[in-house]
Design goal:
single chain; alpha+beta; three-stranded antiparallel β-sheet
Length: about 110
């Protein structure tokens, strides 16, 4: 049986998405992690605190900046991709609507 975790604050954020992303990254590295532990406050209000087991804290503080930087870069690239995809979709829809309109007009002329 495992001893109960002794939680220690790893970092805190004002951005809930970044806090969740960092907590998810830490969890994916197979470390125990929790977000906004035992606080009676609203989870929608900052600060968003990421805590880890005290025995893992030193290991994670060494790579914390890398985790945050990678997550910020990923979020930025994802936003760029989403914007590009959205623009392509709009152009495609407008192009298809234009083709349909031309076909309808040509169809009416041939009658």
């Amino acid at each position: 049986m495992y001893a109960p975790a002794q939680w220690r604050e790893l970092c805190r954020f004002d951005d809930p998405q970044l806090a969740r992303a960092v907590a998810t990254s830490v969890a994916s590295m197979e470390f125990e992690v929790r977000l906004n532990p035992d606080e009676p406050t609203d989870l929608a209000a900052p600060p968003f605190i990421v805590q880890v087991d005290d025995s893992d804290w030193a290991t994670l503080t060494d790579v914390l900046d890398e985790i945050i930087d990678e997550q910020v870069q990923f979020d930025r690239l994802f936003a760029i991709h989403q914007t590009k995809y959205r623009r392509q979709r709009i152009v495609l829809i407008l192009s298809l609507a234009g083709v349909v309109e031309v076909l309808v007009i040509l169809g009416l002329i041939e009658l």
